[in-house]
Specification:
652 residues; TIM Barrel; 2 domains; 7-stranded antiparallel sheet; 11 helices; 16% helix; disordered N terminus
């Protein structure tokens, strides 16, 4: 496994890379040089039904990637997912490629050309694929999901058959096929260019991976042999309209609109299959420079969920540093990195999420992506440097002599390591450090510096998911975790746990150096456990707050009325009726003096809109004599404003 990078104007624009790793007997190395220039035309808007299945609104959606190449040097098989499958909603199998010769989905057995940095060979992924891993590799009883060895004469074997077995054991698990990735995004611009090319591509993918008509090869495959394995598609185009993807990717100024049209085409053709709902999702870029190239206000209607790639924001592509976090939740005044042109912001998870949901004017991002369909990406691997002096803060924001040494299981790529490869470092409390400003962890042994996830940083991110009404978390990838599933369990437990206060980013004025954590056990988050501002209690004691609704997701500070009392939520909650028991999420503000009376005509009984309050989708407020309902997460957007986040329910 290799994750490549690309640096532009001092700002990281890197995301996941798929490099097919295979045995010499299974693949033929070499390049297929194909230059395809498809005519670009104006997109044709497809008339389709929006995604029929509503995304989870509990903040508990758990999504993880299973890498095609996991079965090689890492010996991580679908069997290893068995113990975690009951705690997963979606398993995304990555990646399949686009055939450069006819711009369709295809299967092949050919490794990507060696391209360690992801920048040296523009044709590295042309014609590459690994049908050997997909459906030709035989699994013995010791590594199979059901404990049974693959037998002669089976229609398919390989990962595909193991996914079949995994679904039999876990019928609620959805398995989705991912198309593209860092190495295989070169021809997305071409397949999305016209109505005809979109239809051809989408229908070819459905025929091959939904209907299961994979090509017969190596004694396996053929019509219908892979039917029923995949429950939908995940589109990982890195990146529409942007030159910051893999060297040689085709890019067009029409990509922005064509990407929306491609998603619409997938949604329409999947719906036309009937019989069941097939999911459609996407891996969405992190960084406002790339987000600005997609229509955040339009694509969400076609998706069941989308995964924001909120990582790889810093790494050892800046070989001499300064060291930095690969996934800072918030900004720090000590961060020496530059801003993302042409605006004034730096890379942070918070700025990425807000750009999708609320928009970002300096970058021309309209926002409007439903928060309850958006997941936050959590990396299970680390970015590192070596030759790092301690400086004043245990190696953070210091110079380096180069990328950290490569590790075998990570493909010997400098600057990258898995959790299991760093267990001696990340499990040592003396080498583990925490930054309260960015809510992020790093690991430093006096020479080597690594940035990435810890149970403490994951808890901060699952709290953020709850507080901002997001769908849940995406984990990339299961391949990278340790045998004890430390990080996976931290994500699962964090999403299931309550959140002690939603107050936004920590203060940014202090510049006190961060300190190491006291041990490997996550410490209590540094955010206050009560709302930063006291909610306004309705005057006169009357129940003017909106009635509590079991289907509504409330963020910290939300005020409701229930059983003649007003109540304030201390943190994110949904489905828990206000009471002084339970998890203690609700604070009783006392009885309403007029709790049983009927409000006079024209009285707005919903709580007044407050610019400082964070509202999740379906929150109801009153403003300007009207009642308004939030379509998605919002804060500071005036009802009736240009962002169109509020639906006008009419005059009170």
């Amino acid at each position: 496994m290799q994750r490549a990078r690309l640096s532009t104007l001092g700002s990281v624009v890197t995301k996941r890379t798929a490099v097919v790793a295979a045995t010499a007997a299974a693949v033929v190395l070499g390049g297929l040089l194909v230059t395809t220039t498809a005519a670009q035309s104006s997109p044709v808007t497809a008339a389709v039904t929006p995604a029929a299945a509503s995304a989870a609104t509990s903040g508990g959606l758990k999504i993880a990637y299973y890498d095609q190449w996991s079965i090689y040097q890492n010996a991580y098989y679908p069997k290893n997912v068995d113990a975690q499958a009951n705690n997963l909603d979606y398993l995304i199998y990555d990646f399949e490629n686009i055939d450069p010769s006819n711009l369709s989905c295809f299967e092949a057995t050919k490794a990507s050309n060696p391209d360690p940095g992801g920048e040296t060979d523009p044709n590295a992924g042309d014609g590459a694929g690994d049908q050997f891993a997909d459906y030709q590799k035989s699994f013995g009883s010791d590594i199979s999901v059901d404990g049974t060895a693959d037998a002669f004469g089976m229609p398919i074997v390989g990962n595909f058959h193991q996914l079949q077995e995994l679904k039999k054991k876990h019928p609620n698990l959805k398995v989705v096929l991912s198309l593209g990735g860092w190495s295989y995004s070169k021809y997305f611009s071409d397949v999305a260019a016209t109505d005809a090319s979109r239809k051809k591509f989408v229908s070819s993918c459905i025929d091959m991976f939904i209907k299961g008509n994979i090509p017969a090869s190596g004694g396996y495959g053929g019509p219908g042999t892979a039917a029923g394995i995949f429950d939908g598609f995940d589109i990982d185009w890195e990146y529409p309209g942007s030159t910051t993807g893999h060297l040689g990717n085709h890019v067009s100024p029409n990509d922005t609109a064509n990407y929306t049209a491609l998603m619409a085409e997938f949604r329409g053709e999947l719906d036309a299959l009937g019989g069941k709902h097939y999911s459609l999702s996407a891996a969405l870029p992190g960084g406002q420079d790339k987000i600005a190239k997609i229509q955040t206000d339009k694509i969400g209607q076609y998706m069941d969920f989308a995964d924001a790639m909120t990582y790889d924001m810093h790494g050892a592509w800046d070989a001499t540093g300064p060291t930095n976090f690969q996934d800072p939740l918030y900004s720090s005044p000590n961060d020496p990195s530059g801003v993302i042109p042409p605006g004034t912001e730096k890379y942070t998870i918070d700025s990425v999420i807000k750009a999708y949901t609320a928009g970002d004017t300096p970058y021309g991002i309209p926002g409007g992506f439903p928060a309850n369909k958006l997941t936050l990406g959590i990396p299970f691997y680390y970015r590192g440097w070596t030759g790092v002096p301690a400086g004043s803060n245990h190696g953070l924001y210091q110079s380096a002599t180069g990328p950290s040494p490569g590790h075998t299981l990570s493909g010997n790529v400098p600057g990258v390591a898995m959790y299991k490869e760093l267990s001696g470092l990340v499990d040592n409390s003396a080498d583990t450090f925490w930054d309260p400003a960015t809510q992020s962890s790093w690991f430093y042994d006096g020479t080597n510096f690594y940035a990435g996830s810890s149970p403490q940083s994951i808890k901060a991110r699952t709290d953020y998911i709850h507080c901002n009404g997001l769908a849940g978390a995406m984990m990339f990838s299961l391949y990278d975790q340790d045998p004890g599933s430390t990080l996976f369990n931290a994500v699962s437990n964090g999403l299931a746990a309550s959140t002690s206060g939603c107050t936004g980013p920590p203060p940014t004025s202090p510049t006190t150096p961060t300190t190491p954590t006291s041990g490997t056990t996550p410490t209590t988050p540094t955010t206050p456990t009560t709302p930063s501002t006291t909610p306004t209690t309705p005057s006169g004691g009357s129940c003017s707050a909106a009635a509590w609704n079991a289907a509504t997701a409330y963020s910290g500070g939300a005020v409701v009325s229930y059983n003649g009392h007003t109540w304030t939520a201390k943190w994110w909650t949904q489905g828990e009726a206000p009471s002084t028991g339970g998890t203690g999420v609700w604070v009783d503000n006392g009885a309403c003096a007029q709790s049983t009376s009927t409000a006079p005509p024209g009285t707005c009984t919903a709580a007044a809109w407050n610019a400082a309050t964070a509202y999740v989708g379906n929150s109801v407020v009153s403003y300007g004599g009207h009642k308004w309902t939030a379509k998605w997460w919002t804060q500071g957007d005036t009802p009736g404003g240009a962002q169109a986040v509020w639906a006008d329910n009419g005059a009170c």
